[in-house]
């Protein structure tokens, strides 16, 4: 093996400055995707996060589990969603909050960033709703004698019952953890690196009950569907107005949380001369 081969083989993860530079490069690439490709990639991400939410609720369907074990293992189950997003390649609204680093460096414009966010948010919603339809038609909610459906409605009802300011700050906290997980993924060189790096941040935000707008695009419609159509849970526990309010406020909180991570790392490791 010559010196050139040695340079090519780098099993170690990227350093913080390298990750920040990669985040900016990826953001520029996102703005150059066609709207149609961005939308389809976003639909995939929405569906993948919904699958993680489904896995989480299947585990929660066993009400005999102690609280701590339920939250910890349920959080690990939910990691399926972001593992699929990062390893399979698609567009996730919350992760794209990190595009603020490229905006701060002047590599993309406000218009390009906001256009991407708008397309991706809608694409995530459509993908989530398609996944909800598939999960509902597959009658996953009937598992454990309907215990999974009860858990699904319970999760949704708990989210819509939160006070608006609580939703907002839970949204901030959530996307700090999500974007840190994505940041670790940017620095990873192998699939194993990405998966292991994702586990702790994502399971932590789930265990703590923070609010993720894309996950809620599946949790809340599923809870609404089961509550109003299938008659699961207390009537009126999940309403359309409650779903809309939660998504709006949590989205804003997620943008703030992700933006804090992106700007902090840009300020610390970005190249000032690019600004």
From TrEMBL:
Range of residues in the leader sequence: none
Q: Which residues cross the membrane?
A: 39-61, 73-95, 116-138, 167-186, 198-220, 240-267
Membrane topology, as annotated, equals: Multi-pass membrane protein
Task: Specify the domain of life of the species encoding this protein.
Answer: Bacteria
Quote one Gene Ontology molecular function term: formate transmembrane transporter activity
Matching entries from Gene3D superfamilies are given as: Glycerol uptake facilitator protein
**Where located?**
Membrane
Name the keywords, alphabetized. Membrane, Transmembrane, Transmembrane helix
A single Pfam family, by name? Answer: Form_Nir_trans
Which InterPro entries does this one have?
A: Aquaporin-like, For/NO2_transpt, For/NO2_transpt_CS
Quote the cellular component terms of the Gene Ontology held in the record. Answer: plasma membrane
Coarse class of the protein's main subcellular location: membrane
User: Which protein family is named in the record?
Assistant: Belongs to the FNT transporter (TC 1.A.16) family.
Q: In its UniProt entry, what is this protein called? A: Formate transporter
